[in-house]
Specification:
Length: 137
């Protein structure tokens, strides 16, 4: 069933679209790598050894691919959301981030000091440089 162009685009609908895209439409790891290269991510290590990650690390590749897909969907959809719906959507993302940080902290707290030392943790900053077209006027 197609929705009419006048139907309200909601934060819930955007979230559903994001989840559907990143979970149901996953390409092969090789295709993900091709798409990631086109996404032009810049990756800067904040803590840990970046060389511990390899291009064979499928979970890392999948995470990068998901970040790019989510960004693409959100950028396309943000103009269709009302101000209230945008706030609701980004509040949800903030809450999700806090929950993940909390789970991560609890996971580390449950490890012994020896187990924590054995972990190869890495913190990365992942960003894109956005080039704006200059106005020629």
């Amino acid at each position: 069933m197609k929705r009419s162009k006048t139907s309200k685009y909601t934060a819930f609908r955007l979230l559903k679209e994001v989840l559907s895209d990143v979970n149901d439409k996953k390409p092969s790891p090789d295709e993900m790598m091709k798409e990631i290269k086109m996404m032009n991510f810049k990756i800067r290590p904040i803590d840990g050894d970046i060389f511990s990650l390899t291009t064979k690390n499928v979970r890392f590749i999948e995470s990068l691919w998901r970040i790019g897909r989510i960004e693409k969907i959100v950028i396309k959809a943000q103009d269709r959301l009302s101000t209230d719906e945008k706030e609701l959507f980004f509040d949800y993302l903030d809450e999700l981030e806090l929950q993940m940080q909390d789970k991560y902290g609890k996971l580390l707290d449950n490890l012994t000091p020896d187990e924590q030392k054995k972990l190869k943790l890495i913190t990365l900053e992942i960003f894109k440089e956005v080039k704006f077209k200059k106005d020629i006027n």
